[in-house]
Amino acid sequence: MIPYDLTNVSVFILMTLWLFGAVVTRYFVITSLFFIFLKIIKKSTYWRSRIVNRKNYYQGQFLTEIKWSITTSGIFALAGAIAAVLWQKGYTAIYLDLKANQLGYFGFSIVLAMLIHETYYYWLHRWMHHPKVFPWLHKVHHDSLVASPWTAFSFHPLEACLQALILPIITLFLPLHPFAIVLFLLIITLSSLVNHLNVEIYPNRLIKQWPGRLLIGATHHGLHHAQFKYNFGLYFTFWDLWMRTESPRLIAHTKFAPPAP
């Protein structure tokens, strides 16, 4: 248990600042590694052939994305601090005692959290593309027509707030161990970076066959940044398949397609 009352304003601010430092550090360390990886693999003929969007980044894009991402990190940290308060007051389903016979559920809880997050994200994402909503919430992210690793958390503050809501909400009803939450957050980060890498790292054989067909990579999300009206998923393609919102350009290059209406 945290030995301090998180409802105390000073303690809450310190907790938020600590989480902000952790989130920003995670963002810069992991994103920098992906960015260096991107620079290295582009020297290879094979990897150059797997670039999704060959247009140039706009001038100053990376710096702009970093500025928005720092703001996003602050909002994510605030959401984490609020979740910690809810936990300390007994409103969440977070548990601390992890026994050997609970490891199966430990893994299952992470998968279930991903499926819940996927559903939330897909429908939120589609709503943010409504013409009356898009300029206020989602345009900042789509200013990056060519995605980069720095794009992954480049959100308008209002969108960042909506993105941040899901974890505190999940902890209210889904039993999660703190280590499961850390792994879940790491998966979110890695998935977002893979999606925005602009180089497809998944082998063609994987993403053209089940179950790899369900994974979202740089090709799937790169087409979303280029076309705007398709490919709204985060981790998995199943909502796009069911709702027939997957890009025709992607479907044309795969063995599988949604069933005809």
Helix content: 55-70%
Helices and strands: which structural class? mainly alpha
Major sheet: none
Q: What is the arithmetic mean of pLDDT? A: 90
Q: What is the H-and-E element order?
A: HHHHHHHHHHHHH
Task: State which percent range the strand residues make up.
Answer: under 5%
- What coarse outline follows from CA principal-axis ratios? globular
What is the radius of gyration computed over CA atoms, rounded to a whole number of angstroms? 19 Å
Number-wise, the strands total 0
Kindly describe this structure.
Helix 3 runs parallel beside helix 8. The protein has helices spanning 9-41, 45-48, 61-88, 103-128, 134-137, 139-142, 157-164, 166-173, 178-195, 204-207, 218-227, 238-243, 248-251. It is built from 13 helices and no strands. Helices cover 60% and strands 0% of the residues. The chain has one domain (9-251). It has 261 residues and is mainly α. It is globular.
Q: Notable features of this structure?
A:
13 helices, 0% strand, mainly alpha, disordered C terminus, single chain
Write the SSE topology.
Blueprint: H1 9-41, H2 45-48, H3 61-88, H4 103-128, H5 134-137, H6 139-142, H7 157-164, H8 166-173, H9 178-195, H10 204-207, H11 218-227, H12 238-243, H13 248-251
